[in-house]
Specification:
3 helices; nine-stranded mixed beta sheet; alpha/beta; two-stranded antiparallel sheet; 208 residues; 17% helix
């Protein structure tokens, strides 16, 4: 009986070990969000507002021009664990496809009511959210650019610079060279439309 009990215990242990291994394999299945160029219009030296609502500036009576949207998601590590306190630096073009940057010599108009840049941190569950304007398209020295938002995301030990695209801009995405270069990884950089001008996008870093 003792020998039989030992065999059952060994079998139970083996099953448990296999289940744990499968769980670990599943946990490690998180795909890292693809990195991208920081671009020429990173707002170095920016001294304006940096809060999570890019569509309004304190003291201005007008809201930024364009379609107001909300973008939300979580920052996770490759095991699927939320990263608390991750820092997100966010910048983008305005509704006309123009950056408030001295090196953007495009002729599209600037929007004095558009913040254009934010610095936020994730909550205890890795969540983040911004209110902004859906960026416009524009032509650049490297070709046509579909609507996108730049993000520089840092956890405690890892960092990635990336661009977020929009799932409901399929035609524009299809002719954007940087988007096409993502290949099969493109869905990892594409925010899902949640309805009512809301988008969801989770960011996965290598580590927390």
């Amino acid at each position: 009986m003792a020998h039989e009990k030992y065999i059952i215990t060994r079998r139970a242990f083996a099953v448990g070990a296999l289940a744990s291994a499968a769980g670990a394999s599943h946990a490690l299945a998180q795909s890292i969000t693809p990195g991208s160029t920081i671009g020429p219009f990173y707002p170095a030296g920016y001294r304006g507002e940096t809060d999570a609502d890019l569509s309004r500036i304190a003291g201005h009576t007008e809201r930024a021009k364009g379609q107001v949207i909300e973008v939300m998601g979580r920052v996770l590590d490759r095991n699927g664990n939320p990263i608390t306190g991750a820092k997100l630096e966010i910048w983008q073009a305005n509704t006309h496809g123009r950056y408030a940057h001295p090196e953007d010599v495009a002729t599209m108009p600037l929007d004095p009511d558009f913040q254009g840049f934010a610095t936020i941190h994730t909550g205890s569950d890795g969540s983040w959210k911004i209110t902004t304007i859906k960026p416009g398209t524009y032509d650049s020295p490297i070709g046509y650019r579909t609507p996108h938002i730049h993000m520089d995301v840092s956890g405690m030990t890892s960092r990635n610079i990336m661009q977020m695209y929009f799932a409901d801009e399929q035609e524009a995405n299809a002719v954007d060279g940087l988007y096409r270069e993502l290949g099969d990884s493109a869905p990892l950089s594409t925010a899902k439309a949640l309805g009512d001008h809301r988008y969801g996008w989770d960011i996965v870093l290598i580590e927390g």
